[in-house]
Automatic annotation (TrEMBL):
Predominant location: membrane
Record's protein name: Lipopolysaccharide biosynthesis protein
GO molecular function: protein tyrosine kinase activity
Species the sequence originates in: Collinsella intestinalis
Keywords: Cell membrane, Membrane, Transmembrane, Transmembrane helix
Residues covered by the Polysaccharide chain length determinant N-terminal domain: 2-90
Keyword Cell membrane among UniProt keywords: yes
Entry keyword Transmembrane helix: yes
Protein family per UniProt: Belongs to the CpsC/CapA family.
Pfam families recorded: Wzz
Domain of life per record: Bacteria
Membrane-topology descriptor: Multi-pass membrane protein
Length: 218
């Protein structure tokens, strides 16, 4: 099937091509606005100071080793021990309802921790509690003397998600793709002879005459 043939089929079924994407977009739009709760993200940042740097009093000493320690602290932030300690401190069963993201650049000892949930006050408490627990646990496990909190997490005033317009746009494009797929499949399953060229190809003989279709005639 050529592109021109596909466009011709789409023109013949223009209602399906327009209607299905609109219906899909409306359904996802209603669901996202009515049933998907707003989510909020709180962020805190930490700076890892190694034991060697504290004793020497020189922040540029053994930078690569410090970055390795920062990577270890990043891994520790994702550990079950830190999450369990945080849940216990806040009286929660677990942190499974929160999305926790940790980012750390390879050339920096600054670690950023982001916590996303449905309650703005609670996500800030979770982020700050994780930072406090990782500072204590890192000292116990890795003998890191200081995981300093640069900026404590504040309760967000505006939701960070969900991205409802994006969902609606994706649903619209998905509906359009479904409409095209339905048209193509229906055309492939249609075994009717629709043109003189198809008749000649199937029968192997030329068409020598045609009977016109007269609508409304007798």
């Amino acid at each position: 099937m050529t592109l021109l043939e596909l466009l011709d089929l789409m023109k013949k079924r223009i209602k399906l091509v327009i209607g299905l994407p609109i219906v899909c977009a409306l359904l996802i739009g209603v669901y996202s606005f009515m049933f998907m709760p707003d989510t909020y993200t709180a962020t805190t940042s930490m700076y890892v100071l190694t034991n060697q740097e504290q004793s020497a009093g020189n922040l540029s000493t053994d930078l690569s080793a410090s970055q390795m320690v920062a990577n270890d602290v990043t891994t520790l932030l994702k550990s079950n021990r830190v999450r369990k300690a945080t849940a216990d401190d806040l009286g929660l069963k677990s942190l499974k309802d929160f999305e926790i993201e940790v980012t750390s650049a390879t050339t920096s000892r600054v670690i950023e921790l982001s916590v996303t949930g449905t309650e703005p006050e609670l996500v800030a408490k979770v982020a700050n509690s994780i930072a406090e627990n990782v500072a204590a646990i890192s000292q116990d496990v890795m003998k890191v003397e200081a995981v300093n909190i640069i900026d404590a997490a504040l309760a967000p005033v505006a939701p960070s998600g969900p991205s409802r317009p994006l969902y609606v746009a994706v649903a619209f494009m998905g509906g359009l793709f479904m409409a095209v797929a339905i048209i193509v499949v229906a055309d492939m399953l249609n075994t009717k002879v629709r043109t003189a060229d198809e008749a000649e190809e199937i029968l192997g003989i030329p068409v020598i005459g045609r009977i016109p279709v007269v609508k409304g005639g007798r």
